[in-house]
Design goal:
Blueprint lengths: L5 H12 L16 H20 L7 H13 L11 H16 L6 H13 L10 H12 L4 H8 L9 H23 L3 H24 L4 H14 L2
Helix pairs in contact: 1-2, 1-3, 2-3, 2-6, 2-9, 3-5, 3-6, 4-5, 5-6, 7-8, 8-9
Length: 232
Amino acid sequence: MSTDILEPARAYLVNSLEGKKNGFETRHPWRKDWEFAVLHSLRVKSYSCKILAREKHLLSENEVILLRLAAILHDIARLDKRENHAISGAAIAEKWLQNNAGYTLKNSEIEKVVEMIADHSNKSIHEHDFSKAVLKDADTLDEIGAMSIFMTSNWLENQTPFFFYDLHQRLIEFEIPFCDKKLAILNTFGAKEILSEKKAFVESFIAQLSDELQADNTVEQMLLGLSKNAYP
């Protein structure tokens, strides 16, 4: 099987999502437009390859291509509906694959791609199918690490002079536990290794921010106490 199928899939992803917006994102403005869904899908494809590079896997070259193909198309219905987008996306992808990849892929290969897409949001159970496990883990890894620091800051009042104190605290109280929560649902060694590195980066950022925030302890505590009244 040739990787030639991947470029038409990328083009189909762009053409299908172009101009759309989602109506459920309220916190992170860059997630509202169609370009975000395209970039997310391509990052998931990249994470799939990164996971495979850290694994001693038995996937054939064809199976790797199918995994990359599923990653590109996995969120094709993301902007249409948030709930059950995996199922509806699988149906959309299946129709396109049958009409555009029938000369390249066997029916069993199309079925495999569709199955991976349909199940990619089901992360509550340990996944025994390795290809599906990699796709699920790659999807989980996106937006954790450097990106999540920016996303965390979006939950904070950015007009207060105590913004960096608040960011420091929220990273400790929310982001590190979030990393641990996601680590617990990962299936593959490669993904766990990548997420552990991301968590270490966030911890290093917290340590550096903590060092930069150091001031006279008495004054610091007094100001922070005042801030609770000024910014409830």
